[in-house]
Amino acid sequence: MKSSNLLSTVKLPGFMSFIAVAFINAMVDLGHKIIIQNTIFKIYDDQTQVALTAVVNGLILLPFIFLFTSAGFLSDRFSKPSIMRISAFSATIITLLITLAYYQGWFVFAFFMTLILAIQSAIYSPAKYGYIRQLGGDAHLSPANGFIQATTIVAILTGIIVFTVLFEWLLLDQTYHNEASLIRHIAPAGWLLVILSVVEWRLACRLADINIASTSHQFPWKDYVKGHLLKTNVKQLKTNPIIWYSVLGLSFFWGISQTFLAVFPAFAKIVLAENNTMIIQGLLACSGIGIVVGSMVAGTGEKGHIKTSFIPVGAVGMSLILFIIPALHTVSAFAAAIFSFGLFGGLFIIPLNALIQLHSPEQHLGTILAGNNWVQNIVMTACLVITFIAAQAMLSSKLILMALPIITSLLACFVWQRSKQARYT
What we know:
- It is a multi-pass membrane protein.
- By secondary structure, the chain is mainly α.
- The protein has 17 helices and no strands.
- The radius of gyration is 21 Å and the shape is globular.
- The mean pLDDT is about 80.
């Protein structure tokens, strides 16, 4: 992005504190997930590993589906920094319970605590993305989204490296026979989760309330229970075709990514004959690096300018890379291909996120962003359910990977047509 636009975005009051909160939040969410996934990787193989990994990812997604309406309401009704502060404080309590589970060897309890941690994230997410527009306004949407996406991915990369290295180090020269004995060895890693949560909460307390929270409406419980509110909020997404097709494009991207993340470790474990989680997680981290690069490229340009031409380029690029991956056999080849997939993914998602925020009415922004999360997580969960069923049907990880580029190609054709309606340049 142009240096003047970049510098003005960085200098926005409170922007760097907000970025720090987003960084730590993503790292905490990722840290526990990595520990559970690495445990599954060590204990299980191929189909069982794919199935359990899909379940873990599914538990993370479910709160975003069921809390769609209430999370959007909270973000619109109350101060967004207040929502982030409360979420950060609750994360401290949750990580303390997770640490207790590690020390006691309660693997099933720790496994399902991913659900509780995800509930906190589901409430936090629409407030976070809504706060971007409050901080920078429409003129800074693209660079601010590029920053937040890059920050989230860097946090994920940091979490992968830190918690995987810590995981392997704590297991060094240790003997374990099942999940319970393994997580007792890595229990000290839980304290890092707790410390990060405390720091996040303290930083969240420094965020300024830019806009006064709405006090003019109450949560319509009757409509919520009957499902009427859900229908109304989904219709809100469809009022503007640019918002709706942007939401669908993002949903398909994250659905494909979730399937890839669930399947690839089992595939690589077989192809590379590798049992070291640092190698496998390092390969997956290459996609994050690619997304960071793609996000920064997609955030270039003048203030208020969104490069929608990157959308079809990203979709076609991802399709081509997914065709190549199942035929690869070396660590370096996998790293290059996965980085490229992330790069095209970054080009794809940043303009779509910016379009959603730009075309959302301010008074409905929280609801629309929560609705965006809801549709994305419906699609991702559906993809994980299909992946779980495929694994239970004893389909190999390679066969599942070979189906992904076909689906992505269909997505590329869809986005190529629909993105023309949102084209600015």
